[in-house]
Design a protein that fits this description.
This protein is mostly helical and 308 residues long. The protein has helices at 2-21, 28-55, 60-64, 68-79, 84-106, 121-127, 135-157, 160-164, 174-209, 215-219, 234-254, 262-286, 290-296.
Length: 308
């Protein structure tokens, strides 16, 4: 995990360097917007570092994950004078963020006191693994990977809104609305997946608390039907796809298939690969039938329903 984190941080710095040298592709107004977004990023990042270090709760970024993109894109829409495309992009990000914030809140992730609220169980597991079990190493990991890197990643995958707004941009058209509808469909997919997992886990824990027989269905211990029959992480599939489609707005605006703002979606995919692999290792160790589920069901792509 620590090697993956180092690789991602190095990739981030390379991405930032690449973005810098793409300066001629951005107008002065775009650079002004990017500068403002940088200062917003710096403020949020400083908060996560300070709150995390003072409280020992490393889920400060987790709490902001669904909120900060709304701030970035909302500010961008305001900065552009409520440009039609930027406003459309900000609106669908607000929809995405509202749903994800609700899902995180019902799991106990938020509290007005920064040292309370749920901490992602994976951070505690990582704290016990060498060399992260050394306090100084963990402090560096928290500051540079959990806080700086992940907050930078959030800024990067919302960056297409900067590239999509330019003086010579094409007018909002059919493809923009197709992209918007695509993201709404993916948000619904993600909501269904999270709801199915929530319902399963709630009923499983209710039966345990009541000393009821779990039976073969809840006895497995993990969600494996519905959208989870098609892939092991249908919610992760939707989450990654949302930001890939979001990048499409910059293509619709510029007519260019490749620009620096694609880096956020690529880095997000890398992060989910490492995160899912780590989580699945913990799940497989806890539930004996999970390895069979892994063998029959793809990790992300929803193609498992075709397997016999």
């Amino acid at each position: 995990m620590i090697r993956t984190a180092i690789l991602l941080v190095v990739t981030l710095f390379a991405a930032c360097a690449y973005t810098y040298f793409q300066a001629p592709a951005l107008s002065d107004a775009q650079w002004a917007l990017l500068t403002d977004l940088f200062w917003i990023w710096a403020a949020f990042t400083a908060y996560t570092i300070i709150a995390g270090e003072l409280t020992g709760n490393c889920s400060q970024v987790d709490r902001l994950w669904s909120i900060v993109p709304i701030v970035y894109t909302g500010y961008a829409a305001y900065f552009t004078g409520w440009d039609t495309r930027a406003t459309l992009m900000a609106g669908i990000v607000a929809l995405w963020g509202a749903r994800l914030t609700f899902n995180f809140a019902r799991r106990g992730g938020y509290h007005w006191l920064p040292w309370k609220g749920e901490e992602d169980y994976r951070w505690e597991v990582l704290r016990q693994q060498p060399p992260l079990n050394q306090p100084f190493v963990w402090k560096l990991f928290n500051i540079f990977f959990i806080c700086i890197y992940q907050m930078a990643l959030i800024a990067l995958f919302t960056l297409p809104i900067v590239y999509a707004w330019r003086p010579d941009a094409a007018a909002v058209g059919t493809w923009d609305y197709v992209l918007a509808i695509g993201i709404v469909v993916l948000v619904i997919w993600e909501w269904l997946a999270d709801q199915q997992q929530w319902d399963y886990q709630q009923e499983k824990h209710r039966r345990k608390a009541s000393n009821e027989d779990l039976g073969p269905y809840y006895g497995k211990g993990f969600t494996h039907t519905g959208l989870w029959r098609w892939s092991r992480h249908p919610n992760y599939f939707a989450e990654q796809s949302i930001w890939v489609v979001f990048y499409g707005f910059s293509i619709s605006s510029t007519g260019e298939w490749l620009n620096a703002s694609i880096l956020g979606a690529i880095l997000l995919i890398f992060l989910f690969q490492g995160s899912a692999q780590f989580s699945e290792g913990l799940t497989a160790a806890k539930y004996p039938e999970y390895q069979d589920y892994q063998a029959k069901t793809p990790r992300f792509l929803p193609l498992g329903g075709f397997k016999k």
